[in-house]
């Protein structure tokens, strides 16, 4: 693969010793970016990079003077309370800072003594949404999810004729996107009770999660221009975990003809760390379209797709109920899947989004849509796992679920692993359902 | 009406004499807010108020020291390049500044000599989008439009069962919203040609406008809280004109199941001036629901709706083709309608949007959806006027249209007029279609 460079070398070790363990999500080869401060402090939020169990404070690194040139400028941009300015600097600046940090954090680096003072333990940190998200777009790239959900909403017509041609997407709500740890009250809205012709208003009874990846746009395009499928990767800063909470009963009643609205916009939760596309390079895998399916239209095709179009990011969903939490039980895994199953790639999402001249901006977030895999146990939502609420999910402690209950915490994790490459982890995104606030 | 105050007095006259003509959109009783600078200059954009043919520069007013108290603070907030901070101050501050400006601009005001230097002719100004729009939501409040469009997309099922219960809305794209004068290239995307089973990619052949009002949120709500239908008006800063350009062929192919995406997000154009809800108070009219239709659910109902729930804003669409433009022809009127026909009110839009705890923010924009009236000549889109492209629209100069052609300029205007009240105008929003940029 042509994308690999010295930062991917599996033999690299860091003087931050917690980065050298087999199980860490954040070895020296990862270096994901986020925005943090010491929890409970009144410090300014600023950019940081996760390394083992620590955060390298990029404002402090910049002030320390150990970096020079473009890397120093990039660290300066990361000193702000959002990463937008850094993202806007472009892929050469992202790479330059990543390389400089990789070198400065290696065992034996002369910068160690200066950078020791720039470390903050992750256990002492709190996070912010890492960029100002101007627009949030959610795609629908899992054909398994689209088919399963389609079957529930439209039994006779599960997969619509456009699905295999169009990377279906729609605009979501950016104001209600929060960072891991987000809590939200169960949404109240209109639903059409089964068998009724008259809607009622009340707390959603079919509250669900959606297992997604989020894609942060680094550099955008001007309105009227487009980003080609071959150029797209250079515009992508990196990926995070995304839980696109969904109220299925609200969605079923409201979604025609203009799409989901109140069913989705009450909350969406992302992980604090953005794993750069560069860090994920060792996990690029070929993307193919089944021979019986239509091949993508020319603006969605490039030769590179077949060798490295997809990313093998392993994803999993855990549930910690209130009862589990009270008993010190960290939760139970509900499903696992991989982004490699996606029907559309990130580069196709970007190319499609801009083919009409729509302008993307630094910090925009694209959701991949729920990542369900080919088998039922790889479903990325409770709607699928419970067959539309008909088959309760049995939890190891004897509880059951068809949809989320108050007090439930959903935890999503992601990682890339294979022999011969460093493990690249995403950390986790967690969020908790609070009881509805009644209408007065 | 309890909303009226001295600023609405029809007998008020201004020392800005162009504000005293019968045909001005911007008499002393209006005082809409926008963001401007001298065209072609490198001045900072800053807030201003339209008065007759002039703009009162609020940064200059603030610097002049003629205002005091809350009004002075508000003018200070308006000195920025967007009105978000002013909007966030709340309705008392908006009213205080409006009242102070009304008094300072009246014939005989002692402030005249100081404020003369704060005037800039509108003919010398250029405008910016007046607020940073965090999220843009588009509603669908005209039942006439929903029925007419529904008939074209779903002949057997034009009006869906949820329409009379749910103020249908969806999230739109904020990055591509521009101010009057916006030009955009005809969007290219996938369409399914009639009779074909295989999509093709090319410039939209069914490019359309949509006649809407935009509603600027002044003060928002925190995530998890809601804004009641009775409290909603106090959160609304004001209204502008909105052209929500739409590519109908793209929309038809992509919109299921998640709603419009590339059909809408290439451009939306708003007028530079935001007419405050306070200025529109004399044009509140009663809102009723036909006896045969379901009455709105309790969270969408208030006693005030019946006496003053709607606004009688008269709207019209003009078309100036390239040929007209070359011949000095200002264009021809295609249709006219009124916002009073809307099936859902602004307060219902706000209450519905937040009933699930979704947070609105200062500067958010809500579109009303296309405002078609009850008769065919009141249609707010070309799709409707041309019966889905089947009946060409005859223009006075011999040209015809079914959809927009390259070089076409669409101009929308809005105004409130009745005996015993001052005319409150919106000015205009204009936008021009440029030829598509071919895919390379």
Largest interface, with Cβ-Cβ < 8 Å? A-B, 70 and 69 residues
Reported for the largest beta sheet of chain A, the result is: 8 strands, mixed
Helix content of chain A: 10-25%
So what's the overall shape of chain A?
globular
Q: What does the average pLDDT of chain A come to?
A: 97
- N-C termini distance of chain A: 60 Å
- Secondary structure tally, helices of chain A: 12
What is the oligomer described by this structure? homodimer
Task: Give the topology, please.
The structure is a homodimer of 440-residue chains.
Chain A: E1 33-38, E2 46-51, E3 54-57, H1 58-64, H2 69-77, H3 84-88, H4 91-104, H5 112-115, E4 119-121, E5 125-128, E6 136-139, H6 143-153, E7 169-171, E8 177-179, E9 182-185, E10 188-191, E11 200-203, E12 207-208, E13 211-217, H7 232-235, E14 236-243, E15 246-247, H8 248-254, E16 268-270, E17 275-276, E18 284-285, H9 303-308, E19 310-311, E20 314-320, H10 322-326, E21 332-338, H11 346-354, E22 365-367, H12 382-385, E23 393-394, E24 400-401, E25 409-416, E26 424-434
Parallel strand pairs in A: 6-22, 8-16, 9-26
Antiparallel strand pairs in A: 1-2, 1-5, 2-3, 3-4, 6-7, 10-11, 12-15, 13-14, 13-22, 14-16, 14-17, 18-19, 20-21, 20-25, 23-24, 25-26
Helix pairs in contact in A: 1-2, 2-4
